[in-house]
Amino acid sequence: MIGTVSLLAASTPPQLLPARELMAFTLASHILLVPFGVALPFITLVMHHRGLRRDDPVALKLARRWSAVMAIQFAVGVVTGTVLSFELGLLWPGMMGRWGDVFGLGFGVEAWAFFLEAILIAIYLYGWRRLKPWTHFWLAVPLPLTALLGAFGIIAANSWMNTPQGFELDANGDPVQVDVRQAIFTPIFGAEYWHFVVAMFLTAGYLVAGVYATGWLRGRRDRYHRLGFTVPFTVAAILTPIQFMLGDSAARAVFHKQPIKFAAMEIVWETDTHVPEYLFGRLNSDGSISGGIRIPQLDSILAGFKPSTKVTGLTSVPASDRPTAVQATIVHWAFDIMATIGSLLILLALWYGWCWLRRRDLPHSRWFFRCAAIAGAACLVTVECGWITTEVGRQPWIVYNHMRVSEAVTDTRAGSLWAMLGIVMAVYVCVFGAFLAVLLKMRTRWRIADEADPAARTGPHPENDTPYGPRGEPEPAGARTAPGDGSGDSTGGAS
Questions:
Q1: Where are its TM segments located (predicted)?
Q2: What tens digit of pLDDT does each residue of 451-483 get?
Q3: Burial letters for 331-366: b for 16+ Cβ neighbours within 10 Å, e otherwise?
């Protein structure tokens, strides 16, 4: 075992570690913004539709303010997403040069979706107070669809890397006779795509609701905070049990299509039946497991619904073709954290649903709102854990069973890559710092606008000089479009 590890270390290019760290950092940073890009347009339109249908100025105010957050997030996402696109070619030229013609269409789809989304966001922002209310709404309806299309392209590319197909290899080992349909719709694409999309909706819903839950805990019990909490939390609560089933389906797809990754997720060393489930724990290099909670036969039952199900172990392939013990432990912990948080979110959703069905009201317990306030952050953790499970569990392959990560990495010197990592980290700190500063500035202006007394104010309204948020000042009669266009105001502070 020690000799094998030494041989693998000796054959590893020195630039592999900094290249992987750079890619991991940029991906982990970008994924924090993806839930807003994929799901916030839909949640915003749900609130917008409610405001128009019920002629509710509070709902329209929330929709307009969320659209501002959506636009700023999109601008920041452009930066982080573009960096990732360049890194794919600069850090992994071996993969893109050899396999780009096979799975590159996914990135093309994502690029088209990106341009369409940019145009639709611009129209949506411009349309406030400039278009007829329902015309404005219907022009924005394609926006969530473009977000789903972008996710389609990215997941198509990633699922192909996990289960590559749709090509043949010539005498030199290069792909030929590419079947685009098969390359996009791989065996694991459906399970991975829907699991990812619903995860984005859950995360965005709980994150937005968490902002207003925090305001609720601070004593802001007005309708603004109640509605701002209820709509996104309801969306997330409905999807939570669905996501649990989708996650189970995705894990079972991995069991059938990527058995070695599944073995890493469950730290299964030897192929066997009646395999126990370990909650957390650490895999040692000799196959023993330290710590954790052992549940007899449960892993086989979860994989195939019966104890006699055979689960493939890590030792079924050579050490050079599987994750190391450390990598398997990382994958196992990421998977268990994701499953644990998902289970807790189901309890939170059931708590909410029980109270709503019994008395059509929110739970009265402060503990419920405390849990709701941290649910969004917990979802972000699960999103990070999901990508760790997907990417680290595939090691050492960048294209599963066809190309190793070490074969795809750039020839750039390791020192240059470490320097680039430092520069990117510094830039991202500034970018995300500016993003948070803008959000906090907007929140402050909105709160001032809501709490200001119109009769006592002598200066201009705090929102009159900004392109976002419903302005509190009444407009001239000729400037109004129609009732229900979001011009109404209400009391309550923005969280």
A1: 28-47, 68-90, 102-125, 137-157, 193-215, 227-246, 330-355, 367-389, 417-440
A2: 765 554 555 554 544 333 344 444 443 443 333
A3: bbbbbbbbbebbeebeebbebbeebeeeeeebbeee
